[in-house]
Target: Asparagine synthetase [glutamine-hydrolyzing]
Amino acid sequence: MCGVFAICQQTCQKGQKFDIDEARKLSRRQHHRGPDFNGFYQDKKTGDILVHERLAIMDLGCVQPIQGTTPTRQVIHNGEIYNHQALRDTELKQFKLKTTCDSEVIIFLYERYRDGHICNMLDGVFAFALCYDGDFLAARDPVGVKQFYYGIDANGRYFFSNEMKCLEDSCGDIKIESFPPGHYYTPKTGFVRYFNPQWFDYRNAIQALDLKLLQKTMIAAVHKRLMSDAPIGVLLSGGLDSSLVSSIASREMKRRGMTVHSFSIGVDHNSPDVVAARKVAKFIGTTHHEFYFSIQEGIKNLRKLIWHLESYDVTSIRASTPMYFLSEEIRKKGIKVVLSGEGADEIFGGYLYFHNAPSDEEFQKETIDRVLHLYTSDCLRADKSSMAHSVEVRVPFLDKAFMEAAITLDPAFKRPQKLEDGRNCEKFVLRSAFNTDQYPYLPDEILWRQKEQFSDGVGYNWIDSLMQHCASKITDKEFAQASKLFPHNTPHSKEAFYMRKIFHELFPSDQAALTVRKWIPKWQKNQDPSGRASLVHESSYHNLGEDNCNGKSAITQQRIEQCRPQA
Model:
């Protein structure tokens, strides 16, 4: 995990080449992403620039940019390539690589193939840029786990950065956009999509139920993400997703003789997530750390948080507040890497509004759309709120092999199922995959716990107090001007207006505002993003009636139970 900043000057239409010292100054705005080392390179022929802020996780003494076989071949990389050793042993065995850093394989793969489609050979997450004998290439991982932006300045130069704040001054008057996930860019080809899985088409979700495959690919996804030369831990909210990741990681880390540190946060010791996390930590046997933040601290930190987050989306800000404070405490403990549960709700339709999906087809379409836009929501939140304190978050649910297995599964198996007590249960198929009789992964009360969105689970009064504070800061007269002041993504509450106002002060360009996508639930009247706004939150422990339940659920649940793994 690091900060990458690059400028492709081959597209420059006029003016002098961008100054390397100025580029380094811009890159330092994201120094929090990589406080361990700083490095840079400029191609003498093209003027293309690479600047790197490094957080050392693999090969702790390695500095980027990393050189290929000659000094004119260089790469900077943010992320992790989990199959780097396999690539060294196969595709790259003819080369003499000089480090054990996973990033090094990228420049040598390009040296061998000279094609952006090398991205399909990488099993991991990444935002990288490389210079190679006059070539320039930048790329982003398949679903955008790593944050990445590009901008164009008045002279036609292309800028690339993990964080938008490095681009605002130079490109805000022309163009700033998110670098599209699953694409690479060269000045000759423009943006090219390299990632085209079959699950992009909802009609391909026809795979038969295979709980063992889900379990196997999930375990493999967690294990590969334990790759680190730096201390590693787990984020544990006490919800299903983070608890499963923590349980799988804990088993493997103990087998390797590693100490397992787990971390949770709430507004006090009685917060729903804190209570649940405490139970999970005891069950799986971690060294557990609880932290608390006050409502006043959260409110006081809003401006700093929005500067790091680069978003005015209400959901993202609500949920990023506890994650920001938790990451700060984790870093104080000397931990640089943590595993987390992002992505499961999007893949399996875990948000409570999915209970209201009108059909299997619409359910599947919505899950795909949520996964494809994770880079604007949960991936953005997890990356930026943790990297504010130089902590890397890894997300096993967004592993390529696991996504292929889970998303192509027939949606009838993924929709909420009616339990014996009359309750509709989301993510039933995922719960069933790990509902083993021998060596259980989680206690039943956690395995079948109702969904709580992170901003709710840390303590319900966090959101309620935040809404009240924002409402007190925005007058009715000011709020009446919302559509005039902010015609794009017009805020429809005083809370949203307050967040947007701060964002605009920090990032005043229209281009910056256009990079934000608001998180809005479907199929419910109340558009507040809190899970509590869904009627399902209060009624899911009772019989909702057949009109609110997937018609296939009784048969589907029986079939799922019959396929349940035994260990």
Q: What stands out?
A: The chain has a mean pLDDT of 92. The radius of gyration is 23 Å.
